[in-house]
Fold these 4 entries.
Entry 1:
Amino acid sequence: MEYITLNNEVKMPIVGTGTNTYGKVNKDYNGELKNEIPELESALELGYRSIDAAISYRNEALVGGILAESSVPREELFITTKVPAREEYVSSKESTRAAIDNSLKNFKTDYLDLLLIHAPIEDKEQLKNTWEVFEEYYEAGKLKAIGVSNFKKNHLDELNEFAKVKPAVNQIQINLTEKNKELLDVLKEEGITPVAWGPMKTEEHQDKVLDEIGKAYGKSGAQVLLKYQIGRGVVVIPKSHNRENQAANLDLFDFELTAADVEKIDNL
Ligand SMILES: NC(=O)c1ccc[n+]([C@@H]2O[C@H](COP(=O)([O-])OP(=O)(O)OC[C@H]3O[C@@H](n4cnc5c(N)ncnc54)[C@H](OP(=O)(O)O)[C@@H]3O)[C@@H](O)[C@H]2O)c1
């Protein structure tokens, strides 16, 4: 596994697993919760250590239970979760503290590696209060890094007006249908690490080119796409319910794309 160093020197695995449909009937985001997640157990067995969770996914306690019971030591895991930008969680500092305390309980841990605001909070006072609570837990060592998700440049500018601790990460959609080029440039300038959600999304004509590039290395188009993303400093958190795909998504470190490959993908 390779790691990326965040702006506060914390190291984050460059590949993790998403969990938004894990443990749900029909692998449906809105599906009822089951009481098992074989996919997460399989991911841990295969070597995934970075787990992307969220309060909104409703499965935090289930995911946390599996992590806590696994044989992987806590210090090897990189646990991310997210506080929803909803009144229930951000209307007061007390509600944000309660949300974080509950996540710590769900993961049966005394610290989270990364906590994100799941989406922009439009009310400035609420944004400030929420970030101040994040900073409070960060200073107390209960959060090793703090960041945001789905923030555009204007949201980052607003946060920067009062943030004492800069966001370490912005988790946004980055794939070949949503390249987010301008925002990626902003994040680079500001020293904020981009984490790609939905990193696998492509269109059919793009798949053909990715598959073709992969042939030279004995890799699939999906692996080429992930390699392209991590090659430009983007953390990826692909999610799969299929063990073979899970294994493939980790098997990215024994080949290099050429500059010509990268240019081809850039132009897709
Ligand atoms: N911050 C946010 O607002 C936000 C929004 C969306 C998602 N997320 C996070 O990002 C994670 C990933 O995003 P996502 O789940 O939407 O999409 P994704 O990881 O880009 O794509 C998942 C799809 O790709 C397929 N897939 C995975 N690996 C593959 C491979 N090697 N070959 C072929 N197909 C493959 C999976 O099918 P199989 O199961 O059949 O492999 C699944 O249908 C989520 O789980 C969640 O943790 C965050």
Entry 2:
Amino acid sequence: MNQTSGHNSAIPGGFGIYLHWPFCAAKCPYCDFNSHVRHQPVDQARFAAAFERELAHFAELTGGRVVNSVFLGGGTPSLMEPRTVERLLNAISRHWTLDDQVEISLEANPSSVEAERFRGYRAAGVNRVSLGVQSLQDRDLKLLGRLHDVETALRAIEMARDTFPRLSFDLIYARPDQTPEAWEAELNRALSLAADHLSLYSLTIEEGTPFHTLYHAGKLKIPDQDMGAELYELTQAVTEAHGMPAYEVSNHARPGAECRHNLVYWRYGDYVGVGPGAHGRLTVGVNKLATSTERHPETWLEAVETNGHGMIENVGLTCEEQGDEYLLMGLRLVEGIDLERYEKLSGREMDENKIDDLISHGMVERIDATHLRASREGFSVLDAVVADLAS
Ligand code: SF4
């Protein structure tokens, strides 16, 4: 691969490329992602060709930039054959220059079939894998509709550790009937298996999902707000004690092992979004463009084959929108936001009285004269904090 040590000095936050593989073996009942189940084999060569075309389209807008991160997300990208991944990464390498520290991540599910492909992904250039483990309890894996069991997940973690320089896995907590004691034991076990990064999400009930229907019919009980807060606090205490504190609301890492791709989002960098339902943010000239593509996989495929891209949105963001997005993203990070950058993006200074008011309520903290972050309490009501600062 064509690599160099370089920087996107004009783009604070760096530059990443996201590819969305929209297929899954089954739909999990809590999931509202753009993921689809197909009962016939997916024509991967045809999809790969469409990804190549859409990448070429975005390269025309962003050619010459240095790529800090590539992320293959989904859906379930580990349903891709290694050959498909290789084609996509080769296309990226042809159009852009890869930083010599480039992070190339792939989301994988821990089924045995997918784990067998790990060596092929590594040979294609993937250097970080993010495993959707979700639980270390068989009962809860069934409840979450996952196709793997704990034993298979443990084997996949081991195989991933042996294959990739970097590994993360996801767990979902605040599950039905989960007690703090049970979560603490599970989290300690996860930390003993983890490399240097963990994503720990609390279960949320998303509209349009089977869990939403069950929840509103009273057939699914999840921990109430107080218990949710207790589980969140416990998560922070246990991960901190293990040297893996949160660097973002739901993401934990040893210092230096933060997911570079997600940092591009949260530091409000630039990213190309390719594939069905992918979103992008691109600085082109004086504009910051918001792009998105057709969500339905086969409709996207046909659009790309006809037009060279599946974009359905390509609009310049106003200064105010950019300021709001920077707040929304940056305040998720423990490192917080740069008030001078906020001013440059939004074209206005942040109201000092509002900051002082939120500080007096324990919601935000000043790091220094120009940096601000949400407090731990502020993290739990982040949307309200952002709305307050942005108003
Ligand atoms: S595997 Fe992931 S993307 Fe696919 S349905 Fe389950 S949660 Fe959603």
Entry 3:
Amino acid sequence: MADTVPTIRIPERDIPVYAEADVVVAGGGPAGVGAALAAARNGASVLLIEQRGYLGGMATVSQVPAFCPYTDHIKPVIRGIGLEILNDMKSRMENAFQDEWRERLDWVPIDAEILKRLLDEKMADAGVKVLYHTFVGHVLQQDGAIEAAVIHNKTGTQAVKANIYIDATSDADLTYLAGGRFAIGGDEGELQPGTMCFVLNNLDRNKFLSSSEIHGRDLKHAINKAKSEGRLRVARDWAGISWLNDHTAGFNFGHIFGIDGSNADDLTRGAIEGRALVEHITGWLRETIPGFENAFLTLTGEQIGIRETRRIVGDYIITADDFLKCRSFPDDIARNAYFIDIHMAKPTSGMTMVHLPPGESHGIPYRALLPVGIKNVIVAGRAISTDRATQGSTRVMPNCFAMGEAAGTAAAILAERSSRETRSIDVAALQRRLVRQGAWLGDAINEGYRDL
Ligand SMILES: Cc1cc2nc3c(=O)[nH]c(=O)nc-3n(C[C@H](O)[C@H](O)[C@H](O)COP(=O)(O)OP(=O)(O)OC[C@H]3O[C@@H](n4cnc5c(N)ncnc54)[C@H](O)[C@@H]3O)c2cc1C
């Protein structure tokens, strides 16, 4: 098929260098945000490039309505920049919201507009140069290192140069463009489905919660009944509802299957089918669910939410066995306690969920952030080097903040001695810096650096 696709040759030409920085971060989701802030706070000059007009990634681009747990059910596992952002977001929300959520760190609803403003301000405070509406579409390489990244935006085609590049695109775009190795999906290329998340207003939360028809918070009964009567076309009898106030909630409800988020045709189909499904679901909610009679559809995601695309092949691949045995590694830079949460690839298949016991977590080694064969790229976020099962767990936003913070801190340490060799880092120095910044890398590591 590939050799039947017609091609054209782009003539060689000179393009302007837009900027040079110690660190270029591609992608402004939780991983990119953590990376840019950490690198800048550690003294590096940082350029953060994001294709949308705001930061936050899935939380703002796709309206994913809640942060997954920061804790292992006993203590916070994700601390540092991730926890700072969670707490700062909460502190800007309505008083009633703060009263309800002040002490809670798990499944906190996201106010996407507050998050966007907060992240703009944090970048300005840290001195990060942010470039919005810009896509990283090409890289130039020499001797196994990226020499420049090519960016596209309204100004035209330009280049950016850095010592270290942080790939926080969640699809491992930089690694892919640099010819790095990656895996995608399961054995037959199957991928978790996408979801078009949405926000409804004009709801009556008290009426909803007190309704006997829906058994308190749980919509399962109503969904199953409607499915069996052919009134609701969703694959799963679950809806994630995150209340921002008594009248407004974000919904993670319904799946669109067979979408590869690294393919533009699939993303287009996901947008169109996703919006149609949201219209259908909203109509059903209005007709069926007490308190939702006057629901007003305020917003759908700018892009369908994508759970799974490329995973890099890194110096270490974190496996399900590592997850299950709660393994620690000498070069841990974060820990993960979230469960394996793989949504079904087909409407007829089931969910895969594997929980760790309370208080347990596994390590995320620095090596899992380093794409094989590339010297000056650190990958953070959804695309790090794991097997498929573990990606179903490490992928969530709190983890991405922590991985980003580690990547950014590592990049700044490397920049201090103008090194482009990500593998040359003194891991102990990186861990010490992370612990000082408030990260938790497991008691063994944290205790070792307690008094330093
Ligand atoms: C439907 C759904 C529900 C989910 N539910 C939850 C949940 O409840 N809680 C939770 O914590 N997690 C949840 N997740 C997982 C989580 O949202 C993502 O895995 C996480 O956001 C990944 O973070 P990231 O920083 O790696 O990438 P993303 O959040 O995807 O951010 C990547 C950013 O990079 C930008 N970008 C990409 N490519 C380029 C490029 N080439 N040039 C420039 N910019 C680029 C994108 O615009 C985006 O802003 C959910 C995901 C989905 C899809």
Entry 4:
Amino acid sequence: MKIQIKPGFLFPTQFWTAELNENIEQLQKEAYLIRKNDKDGVVKSNSGFQSYHSKDIRDLNNLPGTNHLLKQIINAVNTIHQISRKGDLQLTNFWINISGKGSSNTPHTHSGLTYSGVFFIKVPKEMKGGRFLFYRNFNEADFISSEYMGLFKEGYQMQGYDYPINTISPKENLLVVFPSWVPHAVEINLSDEERISLSFNFKLNRTF
Ligand SMILES: [Fe+2]
């Protein structure tokens, strides 16, 4: 007797995007001001000679555009959370990345937090590389899945679930939010222009 094989799906992961309407020119000016006042920044997942990662930003006094942006992000992330869950979120930290040619961010998670995300402040006109990458898991972030699953057959039509990586093309004023445990990275910026983003983390204020 021929057996019937039924495919299923495990754990789809939600992420969210929103196009905001922020003053991008102002935000770009403020990003350079942040770098001017915190030249050394900090080294985290960022890699590359022309890669700048600010320390966590704590003082918004001279950053009205960034202050406005954060209010929009707080509203958006609370709205996302409250579709299905109880409780309020707290913005725990935020920082900027200014990525010159050759800069990238290696695969990582923001473990211990609830939601993380990125907002694109400056995207080179002719963006080459610099895409935001989501990985299904760290095995597939570190290895190419064909090394352990084998190559796809000739003529096979690949489906969404066959791809171990999802890519987001950066766009100015685009907000991307995802659960903090999802492995992610940024491709090398191959453009001559800088790419600027603001990243953030939220944690649930537990009331139970
Ligand atoms: Fe990250």
